[in-house]
Amino acid sequence: MCGIVSYIGPKQAYPLLINGLKRLEYRGYDSSGIALINNDGLCVYKSKGKIADLEENVKNKNIEGTIGIAHTRWATHGEPNNVNAHPHFNETMDLALVHNGIIENYDTLKVMLKKNGYHFQTETDSEVLVQLIDFMRKKPRTNLLKAVQLALASVVGAYAIVLLDKNNPNQLIAARKSSPLVIGIGDNEYFVGSDATPFLDFTKKVIYVGDEEVVVIPRRGDIMITTLDNTKVDPIVQHIEMDITALEKGGFDHFMLKEIYEQPESIMDTMRGRINVEDCYLQLGGIMDYKEKLINAKRIIIVACGTSWHAGLLGEYLIENLARIPVEVEYASEFRYRNAPIFADDIVIAISQSGETADTLAAIELAKKKGATVLGICNVVGSSIARATNAGSYTHAGQEIGVASTKAFTSQVTLLILMSLMIADGKGILEKNQKKALIQELMRIPEKIRKVLEKAPEIQRMSEVFTFARNFLYLGRAYNYPVAMEGALKLKEISYIHAEGYPSAEMKHGPIALIDKETPVVFIATTPSNHQKNISNIQEIKARQGRVISIILEGDEEIKRLSDFYIEIPDTEEEFTPLISVVPLQLIAYYIAVARKCNVDQPRNLAKSVTVE
Length: 613
Ligand code: F6R
What we know:
By secondary structure, the chain is α/β, with parallel strands linked by helices. It contains 20 helices and 27 strands. The strands form five sheets. An eight-stranded antiparallel beta sheet has the order 3-2-4-1-10-9-11-15. The protein has a seven-stranded antiparallel beta sheet with strand order 5-6-7-8-12-13-14, covered by helices on one side. It has a five-stranded parallel beta sheet with strand order 19-18-20-21-22, sandwiched between helices.
């Protein structure tokens, strides 16, 4: 995701900022930019692509200056290009701003600003923010600090910002809400970063900016922190002990573990701006033009590969159950070759984290050729699949670096839940109370995932018992069947242990022959509607000396007694269970792979984006 680095002090800012941006490259980005104040005034340079492209762009340009802000952008609003890259500036070009996060009400604010004579050059929500600060600054008795406080008070969403004012080269203003921002205190100099990696060589003394706090960072003297209503806050200075590599991974040993832990936030990011509990409002902006088509669809076909296909299978269960539309789920690689009948009134939904998967792209082209409407669910903004589809919704899970997909999966499922609820609502299937209860429960999911993550040490101890197992079976029913397949895929991808995921009841039609005391069975038994059936299946496994690791709802004493190991997870609506029940499976795969000393983030033979057939 986007990265911020800024500097004010006696040194030349440009080399520090460029090196800082390079340190943030691990976060993923598609463009970068820098703003400096020097003899030429405010100089802003931006480039699509890599930081090397930015360096090329500034050759022979004025890069002098001892104050500057810089940014790596991972597109959310507007495609990755030179114009949409940060820093953004106001119309008179005296303020420049870098921003991480999403301004959810940017549309409303933009309309208001346009009415007040403002013009916009970019499609970004961030440009709206800098213009809004400019607008607020024009109010009587309003200095820049107050303008920032006023602007941020009228913003809904997440932000980490740093602001540069051409007319005051002796001060930076920074602020944050829900998006991290840290200030580095050097020797007569200050740094600002979305994390400390850009400036760790210079200082380990930091201040973590709190939510809804605004910081004035002067060239000389102490920084001043206030809340949005101008109450002073005492800065808390801390010392960082970590080394740089650990910091890039946010202190986690692997990107995969970091991404597993990011799920409460990434799921919130998928929902952000799309639901409102109070008004019972639910909208997916990107596919609004196709809402009626979706509501009236006779058939939906989901195409995807791998983990995204598992999310698609959950999409089938969700859409059929909640919105009562028949759904078929296809491996994109099969769909493209098996001459399936596709009709002009079909809606095809393509799901992809990377947005570059060759088979999924080919399936999209085929569906379009047959006249079907094709919608996308992608994580990477501006990716090939996002561009090839008629419309779509981004998952906004943030960049996923670990090859084994984790947070992208839960964000895809979250988006499919939102889509199913939106269609069901449009069809008048959901009572208002029912809809409200579902939306309220969905908002509780991140907290429930946090509770599962607290069990990581326990899951690690249990997983290590199975370090040398050669085969695993994963079983689940209904919403937990796709989860069983996803758990098995995670394990084989990163630990190289053979694993199969099956619907629990299918066990007796074949896989039961595999069960012996050497074969652990992960049984996902968190759907109360099948409780008794789950118990029978577990007894069948135990009768054959199988070892059962069960994923159960908190307090399910009956299954606890039958299991060799169990992991309790919080209860939720059955439709939302996969978002929680998949988390212990991700952790089991992770800890077994670590115990086997496997390369967790880059497993052998696998690529993050499969651009070949
Ligand atoms: C599994 C995994 C793969 C991908 C598959 C599709 O952890 O990452 O199975 O899910 O290659 O990739 P996307 O979603 O990028 O189309």
